[in-house]
Amino acid sequence: MSYINSIGKYFGMLRYVFSRPERLKVYHTRTFNEIEIIGLNSIGIVAILSVFIGAVISMQTAANMTSPLLPKYTIGYITRSSTILEFSPTIISLILAGKVGSNIASEIGTMKVTEQIDALEIMGVNSLSFLILPKTIAAMFFFPFLIIFSMGLSLVGGYVAVTATGLSSHEEYVFGIRSFFLVSDITYALFKTVCFAFIIVTVSSFFGYYTKGGALDVGKSSTQAVVWSSICILLTNFILTQLILL
Amino acid sequence: MIEVKNVNKSFGDNHVLKEFNATFEPGRVNLIIGQSGSGKSVLTKCIVGLMEIDGGQILFDGNDFSKMNRLERKEIRKEIGMLFQGSALFDSLTVEENIMFPLTMFTKMSKKEMLDRANFCLERVNLEGRNKLYPAECSGGMQKRIAIARAIAMNPKYLFCDEPNSGLDPSTSIVIDNLIKEITYEYNMTTIVITHDMNSVIEIGDSIVFVYGGRSWWYGNKEDIIKTDNPEINDFVYASQFMKNLKNKLKQEGM
Q: Which of A87, A240, A78 is closest to A151 using CA atoms?
């Protein structure tokens, strides 16, 4: 029953998040600040993860290609397909749920327990919209760029790994990543990313905003935010794959 | 003027406010006092709409706040300043930005006008020149004064102070009390202060409501509270044996 209450409360929260902002200019400024905090500050971790994910996928593909009938360009092809369809949008979003989600939940949770949110409400500010809307817009706008960046770096990581170890040649790998390319794969990946960005910010904000108690509870909210964002991402990924790809 | 009429508030089986009545007049410092858990903070949160009441009326200059919709409440709230127990300053903003925040959100003032207003408010609380500090760089007393500066930035008609002296030393407490008293008289605000601090009661209590068991148990002013024979009040005001002995001695000497 409490899960149903929470789901209802979550959608009730969204109604206020997307209500008319008090001062558009202030929201613009906050959105740009959030792009820096949520997006630009995540570039480092996304870059490191993407390079290694790409490298490992290409090497594992090469290691599992035991049949001599399979052409070598399959390594590049599989690396590209796995990266674009799944690893960059989903795995990077799961990592961002950990990094960005916990940050959002603890920031808003701390504001809640230190009465800063009450202060906003007393002033007549719609605290839900003021705190959550700029973060949501920033994430939905910037995460697709992060994922495109991640896709590129994964392919580079794969290239370096297989060419440096002699598992594939430059020509074969490049031919592989260019084979059977569908633009719709990129569209699908970016659409998923926008959905995941929305989930990460709103679910994490929900847990932060409804924190009750003190510092310990802020920590609990932060953990719950990461867990539930991840579960929602995986469920959404399953549903979108079913609806769009199959 | 704020009037609280027959207000009830429960949390499950816990009936926190029972038929609560009080009137808070403008140009006076109205104190709400009472033991911990008596319902003072819940009462304040109900008055400002952070909690919904179960029954009764809360009237701001005759308008029933509890029956207003979100937009009507928003308009009233623009006229409310609140000093929270923990100051509730925005950590990520400087002192100046904290004070300018309500002005940025709700006025069409230019940057210079807002800055002038922030400087005026800072001067009013004796913190001129501290504009660029962050709340974490300020002492507890300074944070309270910054919170007062932010609360008066919009020239509010109503000022709420939730335990303004908690965590402060006696001399800083007196500074904060005097500041609240001065700005109340200066701007003819309806000020409501929740406090446990008996020094504050004696110093600034123009009008006092004693909350006991969720009810408005006793009304009076700072002179009345010393003279009253109400046993619940005496247990609260003269809580220690030393104070009880002092009161008995003063009584024996006819004072």
A: A87
Yes or no: say if B30 and B24 are a contact pair by the CB < 8 Å rule.
yes
Residues of A in contact with B104 (CB under 8 A): 23, 26
Whether B26 and B44 map to the same domain: the answer is yes
> Distances from the Cα of B236 to the Cαs of A61, B35, B159, B222, in angstroms?
77, 7, 25, 14
Q: How distant, in Å, are the alpha carbons of B89, B95, B127, B130 from that of B119? A: 17, 10, 9, 9
Give residue A114's pLDDT.
92
Question: Is the CB of A118 inside 8 Å of chain B's CB atoms?
Answer: yes
Write the pLDDT tens digit of every residue in B186-230: 889 999 999 888 888 888 888 999 998 888 888 888 888 877 888
CB–CB contact B50 A124 (8 Å): no
Rounded to an integer, what distance in angstroms lies between the CA atom of residue B87 and that of residue B147? 6
Q: Which residues contact B57 (CB under 8 A, 6 or more apart)?
A: B3, B4, B5, B6, B7, B64, B66
Radius of gyration of chain A measured on its C-alpha atoms:
21
Q: Do the Cβ atoms of B122 and B131 come closer than 8 Å?
A: yes
Q: Side chain identity at B252, as an amino acid letter?
A: Q
Coil, helix or strand at residue B14: strand
Q: Distance between CA atoms of B187 and B27, rounded to whole angstroms? A: 7
Is residue B105 in some structural domain? yes
Structural domain boundaries, residue A65? 23-245
| Chain A contact present for B82, CB below 8 A | yes
The three-state secondary structure class of B205 is coil
**Contact at 8 Å (CB) between B156 and B188?**
no
Cβ atoms B40, B33 nearer than 8 A? yes
State the DSSP H helix or E strand holding residue A228, giving kind and residue range, or none if neither.
helix A215-240
For B39, the 3-state DSSP assignment is coil
Q: Is B194 on the interface with A (CB under 8 A)?
A: no
Q: Is residue B244 in some structural domain? A: no
ipTM above 0.95, yes or no: no
DSSP letter at B37 equals T
pTM: 0.86
CB A58 within 8 A of CB A79: yes
The count of domains in chain A is: 1
H or E element that contains B219: strand B215-220
A22 touches chain B (CB under 8 A): yes
Residues B45, B169 share a domain: yes
Q: Where are the alpha helices (DSSP H) in A102-214?
A: 102-113, 116-123, 127-165, 170-178, 183-209
How far out from the chain centre does Cα B109 lie? 28
Instruction: Spell out, as residue ranges, where chain A has pLDDT lower than 50.
Output: none
For residue B108, report the phi and psi dihedrals to the nearest 5 degrees. Answer: -105, 30
What b/e string do you get for B79-95 counting C-beta neighbours within 10 Å, with b at 16 or more? Answer: bbbbbbbbbbbbeeebb
Measure CA of the first residue to CA of the last residue in chain A; give whole Å: 34
